[in-house]
Write a structure and sequence with these properties.
It is a single chain. The chain has one domain: Winged helix-like DNA-binding domain superfamily/Winged helix DNA-binding domain (Arc Repressor Mutant, subunit A), CATH 1.10.10.10. It has six helices and two strands. Strands 1-2 form a two-stranded antiparallel ribbon. Helix 3 crosses helix 4. The longest helix is centred in the first third of the chain and has 23 residues.
């Protein structure tokens, strides 16, 4: 593609679509005691654990005090656990607890079902192309 501006416009459209699909896939996930923000933190942690408070704060675009408050609430709900870094006792890591992992496994099962419904008419060739496209995006854009 010669026109990088056109590629950028396609990228913006894609990221907007990703946000919409993410919303569509997760809007029906309701857990009595979890806010949408807490769910997003748990979702991030499910794919990026263990994490530090600052990593969560950066990824969620939240201030450290707000992140700390939400992490405290998730800890009180026994959905996460903290532990000290082996090499630096001042550094704490956060990961999902067994209860938190079970909650996210259930959520991902719901998302997987919706995803499979969306791609159920894709040919084997389409699926291979989708896989390659995702690999390229991960390697070149979302690294």
């Amino acid at each position: 593609m010669d026109n990088k501006k056109e590629l950028f416009q396609k990228f913006i459209a894609l990221t907007t679509s990703v946000h919409q699909v993410t919303y569509d896939f997760t809007k029906d996930i309701k857990y009595d005691d979890i806010t949408p923000l807490q769910y997003r933190i748990l979702e991030y942690m499910a794919v990026s654990q263990p994490s530090t408070l600052s990593e969560i704060s950066l990824c969620m675009h939240m201030s450290m005090p707000n992140t700390s408050r939400e992490i405290k609430k998730l800890s009180e709900k026994q959905l996460i656990e903290k532990f000290d870094a082996a090499d630096d006792k001042r550094k704490q890591y956060i990961q999902l607890s067994k209860k938190g992992q079970a909650l996210m496994d259930d959520a991902f099962l719901h998302i997987e079902t919706l995803f499979l419904e969306r791609i159920n008419t894709a040919s084997e060739e389409d699926l291979e192309q989708l896989s390659k496209a995702i690999d390229i995006l991960q390697a070149k854009v979302f690294f």
